[in-house]
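Proteins fold reproducibly. Next comes a concrete instance:

***
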Amino acid sequence: MPSPPLRRIRYRFAAFTLSPGHRLLLRDGRAVAIIPRYLDLLLLLVQKRHQAVHRREILDSVWSEVVVSEGALTQAVRALRRALDDDTREPAFIRTVARHGYQFIGKNVCEEDDDAPLPAAAGATAASDSVPAPATATEFETAVERLLAPGPLDGEDRREAAEQLHALGTARALAAVTGRPGQAEARALLRETRWDVAGAGPVPIVAGPRPLRTAAAVVRLRLHRAIRLAEHRWTAAVAGAAIAGVVAGALGGLALLLGPGSTAAGYVPLVLSLVGGVLGGLGAAGVAAGLCLAELVARSWRGPALVALGGIGGGVVGGGAHLVAQWTLHGLFGRDLEPIVGGLEGVVVGAATGLGYALTTGGEAGGLASPRGAARWRAAVLAGVVAAAAGAALALAGGHLGALSLDLMSRSFPGSQVGLAPLARLLGEHAPGRLTAVAISGWEGLMFAGGTVYGLTRRPRTA
């Protein structure tokens, strides 16, 4: 016998109705403008109103697929209080619990069936159609002055003023700041906070006044946030790629050791695992920096930015490694080996890693994608597959990643034990040829990108 469907609960408190099924917050039957993420936060607090909810639980529940700073939670609570007309000094709905989180303290919360008809007039107004709240000229001008006031660009007072002006009318706010001192920074703040206010209008940069200065201010805002938010993820990505490099190097060393006609010593797998870990960590240092920067600085063009900045980061590290290797070999041994891994290989593998990451993760304004469980493994595997294809294409075009560069050097130094001939024989080739190059380069791309993305998507614990 099939189990009965779960009953959906609607909540009523004061003049408000919170409907999870209809995804609406109503006040006296009219929809209140609120973005979906903040609606989820309010629903969580109301459902757990008998206890204070820890910040970590809120971030893990409401922002389950992305990593955001605790500043995003503060902004969300501020927006909810504004929607509920709540006073932070004497709250009637949302209480801040110091060093812990937040609690919903609204009185007389009634639960009812969410399948019942909504209160009258609710269906006539959609959240996206809500009009800005009326404001007096004094209230509006005060908010404009707070927005234009000198001080830190990302200060809480200026950000709150920008959010308030969006609620009062984005176009009106833009007209009010145009031509006044500090207009570029004000427009940058309005552009950033439009993500946090339901119904906020567009804030163009190119078509607006002082476009270069406004763009520079936007970049400053996002870079400041990126440094705070992405540090942990960058470290985890480097560690992930280094571990993947250790595994790839150890397995490659075992294949060399056990391959037909091998003369490798027993310690070769250990040496190659160390080399793989170093190369993987160095490569990820550049690629992961580009990916983190892309997610937070280029929100509107996330996918192309991930590809471009991942490629740039990889190219910088690859080009630097090429120069160091060339100088070392020439200075110590008097040899020049041009095909050693370089900037082009770094660009291709970094861009491929960014492409795979972009295809499997969605962006969130102000946050870094953080898939969990199977979704996290899927992102890592797909990024690895894309990078494997890129590595194979590089090999076909004559490019050299780590293993092929080592094989090239082994031919110039008699007695070297890292030649790829035993691996080639395992693959059916008498000597390293196209098949060997494609297989090994694809393997390197798979492990590097997979390790980088798996580490990059590690969700930090919230204090």
